[in-house]
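Project standup — Tuesday

K.O.: blocked on the structure for the chain from last sprint. Re-posting the sequence here as requested.
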Amino acid sequence: MPHPLPALIVIDVQRAFDEWEAAGKRRNNPDAVARIVDLLAAFRANGAPIFHIRHEGTKPNSSFLPSRSGYAVKDEAREQDGEPVIVKRVNSAFIGTDLETRLRASGITTLVICGATTNHCVETTTRMAGNLGFDTRLVRDATWTFDRIGPDGDAHSAEEIHAMTLSNLNGEFARIVTAGEVIASFAAK
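H.V.: unblocked you, prediction finished:
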């Protein structure tokens, strides 16, 4: 039987990203973690399922190695008792994990995705969720990314990358929503 509530998938809200910022990398959406905190509070208040995803680096210089400070989750987004933590080693939270099995076993059909970064693990997980047939919502103001240099040396701002990622996913893989819309949907039930 389908689960009546959506599941919140919180991707890679880890300290490595704070370290990148401190080292001079520029990001967009500075309020994203605050919106994730709002989503966590709403899902908890409504008894809706929450799954925390952590990235475990595999390369020797990765900021996400378990032995490094960047692996730790940001305090604001820490899991509570009973909220599963799923560790992944690639961009998709579905590859090499039991996330899909857990979701299907619980009858969960709707996913609300937030976290970091928009164009990496969030995008890859969102694409796969859509391909796997989940009713997927990506929370535009609860995810962020960083400036990047393209293969031709062109500079791309975090805002530009974020907007393009949302455009690529919209309609085909997910519905793009705001944290406020997700929270309001609980009141409508």
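K.O.: great, moving the ticket to review. The mean pLDDT is 97. The chain has one domain: 7-179.
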